[in-house]
Specification:
Layout lengths: L10 E11 H8 L7 E2 L3 E2 L6 E10 L4 E10 L2 E12 L4 E11 L6 E9 L15 E16 L9 H5 L8 E5 L2 E5 L1 H7 L1 H7 L4 H5 L1 E3 L5 H11 L13 H10 L3 H13 L6 H10 L3 H12 L16 H10 L7
Parallel strand pairs: 10-12
Antiparallel strand pairs: 1-9, 2-4, 3-4, 4-5, 5-8, 6-7, 6-9, 10-11
Protein name: BTB domain-containing protein
Organism: Panagrolaimus davidi
Length: about 325
């Protein structure tokens, strides 16, 4: 355990009594397949940033009702949970020992147990609801296994700080009847092509407006976000990657060009390799081109059918042909 972890208790107790009114449950029952009934959110007493709550949902496959313990991580990476959840009136009890919850997402982790069949929950003979209420009890411990996270102390870059400063953005892209504003120095620092245009003395430079007709406003906005060092990885997808690759090639934005190539290389598959190979030629994407050639080389000498191969640029097919023969080097 590292030094920051040693500053806190390694283990803490958790517990709650959750009372659910029968009439409230009846109203919610019809939507339990997609909307859970959720308890209050409680904080772990001595493990920083760890919250927990219970919720009920329904399994559409077998019509069961489930009781879930949800652990939400804010500052820790991994905890071990040992707990008991019970409905004493119905003689229901589940004991969970050493359930490891590892933070792999930003949403937390879930421990699910079947509570009962859906038809049982409101049947008086099963005694889940007594005198109009169901009382669910949780008792247990949470143990810190590893990882207290500290927020990064690195200051934002100047570009990131300026991103929201709309008042001083002095250049505008005109695209699809929309204006996308940007600071001139941020723009010119990222693209030598735009830098030359802004220093040309032409109409665009004087009016500080750049009209874009061959790319969509989505692509221009992604580019501007990139200029301000925004994280655009979730904005790049298979639908816009080709256009973004062409944009970054045309305006000589090399890091963005590389980012899109990396994205497309990760998506490389038999059904799209011919399309990506051609795209690599038209967008000067040398790394993507090399990956496409190597991918296609796997099928040389096989009776394989590659959809669209007849449309592949001759530069690609010639390279494949050259690689089929041994070469000598003096």
């Amino acid at each position: 355990m590292n030094s920051i972890e040693s500053k806190f208790a390694k283990e803490c107790s958790i517990g709650m009594k959750w009372r659910i009114k029968e009439e409230v449950f009846r109203e919610a029952l019809a939507t339990l397949n997609h909307e859970a009934i959720v308890s209050s959110v409680l904080k772990a007493s001595s493990i920083p940033g760890l919250e927990y709550y219970l919720y009920l949902d329904s399994d559409a496959v077998d019509s069961s009702l489930n009781i879930n313990l949800y652990l939400e991580f804010k500052m820790v990476k991994k905890v071990k949970a040992t707990f008991t959840v019970s409905v004493k009136s119905a003689n229901y009890q589940r004991i969970i020992v050493n359930h490891i919850s590892d933070k792999t997402t930003d949403w937390g982790t879930i421990c699910k147990e079947v509570l009962c069949a859906r038809y049982q929950i409101l049947d008086p003979k099963f005694k889940f609801f007594v005198d109009g209420y169901m009382e669910i009890e949780l008792e247990g411990t949470l143990e810190l296994v590893s990882g207290i996270k500290k927020k990064p102390s690195r200051a934002l870059s100047l570009a990131q700080l300026l991103w929201k400063n709309d008042d001083e953005k002095d250049v505008a892209f005109v695209v699809e009847d929309q204006l996308v504003n940007v600071h001139k120095w941020v723009l010119t620092a990222n693209s030598p092509v735009f830098k030359a245009e802004m220093e040309s003395g032409m109409k665009e430079a004087q009016e500080k407006k750049i009209t874009v007709t061959d790319f969509s406003v989505e692509i221009v906005k992604i580019f501007v976000d990139y200029c301000y060092e925004r994280d655009i990885r979730n904005d790049v997808n298979e639908g816009n990657a080709s256009e973004l690759l062409h944009f970054s090639d045309k305006y000589d934005v090399e890091p963005l060009h590389n980012l899109v190539q990396n994205f497309l290389t990760d998506k490389l598959a038999e059904e799209n390799v011919c399309k990506l190979a051609n795209m690599s030629i038209t967008s000067n994407a040398k790394e993507l081109r090399e990956c496409c050639v190597c991918f296609l080389m796997k099928y040389v000498g096989q009776c394989a059918v590659i959809d669209g191969f007849s449309t592949v640029d001759k530069e690609i097919t010639s390279e494949i042909g050259r690689r089929c023969f041994l070469s000598f080097s003096d």
